[in-house]
């Protein structure tokens, strides 16, 4: 880990230090990992200018060259997988085995876009007369600015930066102030792989407002990408409006997880464990409202209770850790407030919720959850499974869709007709059918309604960083 532990912003291929510093806290021990410098306004502007200079050079490089650089970056990330995973567990808290999986998943985006760089095809358009030839081709959009969250400090970075570089764009990244160390390590490895100087800049700051305003207000920044809450996303969209930036937003979710009585219940509960408790429930696609058909409720609860009771909450470096700490004290407080509100309004609790100390939260199951409870409407972002019984398909679809969000949804069924009906009826950008873990670099990731704009992953993710130019030639 130590050879990839840096403490300053990374601008134009060099580390940029300031007099102001803040601590990066290990959520498991609540001790400082290191002190990092807090970027100033001059540094943000320098990063934007460096990215603009890099874009001027990068946009004229060929796709094969960019592909080769991305492949070298991929190789370096895999070579340093263990060090990156340890760094992630240290600053984010997730179990080491999950961190190792995230490094591989995040590297998958680099590998995918190393290939997609060579596939940004244009087209010849059939002419409407004999005197013209019509065509279109794609060009990089320009300097990209992005803000990434703390819950996936590697994958959230690579799935933005890799397609941007593949397209020929440069990047200015502001990672979460809670987990910036992985982003710095990725930028260092990208530089070692041969990234154009200034093509990948990382800004460390506790002052997200200042950095965000400078990035969104800059005329040089032509694309803005954000992963985080819907509230912050709305504010950033408004800030991007005066300069008409292209935006992509991966925002909040409230994922339904539906278990029909004809499902393979063992498979359903197994899938639910991954969808709900991975990363301690701190994912935007986590199962948030778990709908179980009433005739299968007792069986599901019996199976689920046994699996949840077996979960081990511990420091992510502990060999048998299943759930690490929540990211910071306010996150734990929020989970406990949601649980308390639900219990006060009639929910029942399964599990031992004794205080485990620090940022550690015991996994719980809540039954008899209703729409009057806050936990029904808010992302829990913690290891609490909220169970809602339903009687028929029409009822559960109405409940599943009756929220302003539409990121991910899951359901388990063995009725093929029902599978088609439900997958088409769910108002979500992604649907898992008999599967609780759906993210994949080769597939488009994103939501509808207030869960965001645009897609990351798949060939669609490359298009987010490309402009289409139409050419009409008279002959």
UniProtKB/TrEMBL annotation:
Active-site residues, Swiss-Prot/TrEMBL: 250
Family matches, as SUPFAM superfamilies: ALDH-like
PANTHER family on file: SUCCINATE-SEMIALDEHYDE DEHYDROGENASE, MITOCHONDRIAL
Protein name: NAD-dependent succinate-semialdehyde dehydrogenase
Family in the record: Belongs to the aldehyde dehydrogenase family.
Species of origin: Pseudoalteromonas prydzensis
Residue ranges of every copy of the Aldehyde dehydrogenase domain listed in the record: 20-471
Transmembrane segments: none
Pfam families, sorted: Aldedh (PF00171)
InterPro entries: Ald_DH/histidinol_DH, Ald_DH_C, Ald_DH_CS_CYS, Ald_DH_CS_GLU, Ald_DH_N, Aldehyde_DH_dom, Aldehyde_DH_Superfamily
Keywords: Oxidoreductase
